[in-house]
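Take a look at my tokenised protein here and describe the backbone shape.
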Amino acid sequence: MLYPVDYRYSKQWRKQAEQEMRNRGNAGMPDREIEAFVDYFWKVLHPELFIQPLVTQAGASDLVIEIDINHLPRAVYRSGDRGAARQ
């Protein structure tokens, strides 16, 4: 699973994607709508509740790939091995 080192990056990434769509002449949500959309889903399905178990419980995911703000892999490990030696 892809695991952003900070779940809040997803809001910035969504804004970047929508901006790129608008730059290409396609419809895209303005930043204010993105904020409301993402905030709503964080209230209903907060990332800390559904992502953390996939990272911390052994066997919940085959591999966890931590990604940084620039979408680059930072670490790769098996779920449940967080903090252990990483590949």
Summary: The mean pLDDT is 89. The chain is about 45% helix and 15% strand.
